[in-house]
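User: My collaborator sent over this chain with a note saying "see what the structure looks like." That's all I know about it. Can you take a look?
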Amino acid sequence: MRSPVRDLARNDGEESTDRTPLLPGAPRAEAAPVWCSARYNLAILAFFGFFIVYALRVNLSVALVDMVDSNTTLEDNRTSKACPEHSAPIKVHHNQTGKKYQWDAETQGWILGSFFYGYIITQIPGGYVASKIGGKMLLGFGILGTAVLTLFTPIAADLGVGPLIVLRALEGLGEGVTFPAMHAMWSSWAPPLERSKLLSISYAGAQLGTVISLPLSGIICYYMNWTYVFYFFGTIGIFWFLLWIWLVSDTPQKHKRISHYEKEYILSSLRNQNGLLSSLPYLGSWLCMILSGQAADNLRAKWNFSTLCVRRIFSLIGMIGPAVFLVAAGFIGCDYSLAVAFLTISTTLGGFCSSGFSINHLDIAPSYAGILLGITNTFATIPGMVGPVIAKSLTPDNTVGEWQTVFYIAAAINVFGAIFFTLFAKGEVQNWALNDHHGHRH
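Assistant: Without extra context I'll predict from the sequence alone. Here is the result:
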């Protein structure tokens, strides 16, 4: 018996013969082996690249605790007494050879936020440049530049707040090109029916980078001092860059070690599209990204779900689900365990979006995927800049009621985005995106 859900998916505004992402009547290329393949090697290297991207981004948030004189921010660390302390403060003795700075809470906020002021600038230019020259060198030098600048963080901090803010903004400039550049590369490397798997693997490195770098930075600060946090991750970034330059190519045609069979499989898959392809919470999100990528491609390849239907389903789960648990988190009172559980579930469900709207750029305009991601990621960066400011203004007394308002706003934004995407999303290449870029059109 045929599943009614499957029938609904096949008739969701598209022809019943649709086998998206393949065009009707187009031959389906036989998949090349996965093991030791160039495309999955690219995904794995990209995975570690984005691991490093996020490690370089968040390590300062841990190191800053050890960089600042604790007496400076003692008054700023007051919390609401609406709930009792869930654990008693413990005095620990650890390495304190790193220099301390007299930075108040406002100064620390400027230091932490300065990264995003550079990051937002290069999103759109990064997508444009990647579409013109390819993403390999752009992504590689973006991460290399950030890694090198990270090595100079202790020097910048010693020079003063201004130089450190400038250095962090420059790091943001380097990282701003990474996602658009990677999207541009996948427009030439990802076979349509493996797209979700490959992108999910590569971008999942960002979540794991956060999961591992936060506690690892704390360990480095504890046993050594905060300067080694930046030396360690900066050195790792440089080592990754050497592997990236040696092993990666912009397109299958330029790759020196790819098998002839795999190259023909990728190129024929793209030709058949005629242009269609162009810490605990973060761990859950990382796992969800990996699994949802597998599920999304299986729904399309084995169950003949339309691309549009899959994108809608995964976007709805990835946006409505987190909204529900965000609101619920505001009504659990002082149950800390339940709060962690709800926020973990909320962030985990957000991982479904990686196979929803996050990949949709490649569905509607593969030749311009890098540029489009640059545009959308630019707007996505704005909450990271203004969110902390708004949250702080809405929670002057740090009460449960005030935080409920914050959660309501975040949930409302998610629900609005889910409804908007569901109503207006497309699953096929748009006419304005049809060209011969990257071989998507004959």
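A starting point for your reply to your collaborator: Residues 1-27, 88-93, 436-442 have pLDDT under 50 and may be disordered.
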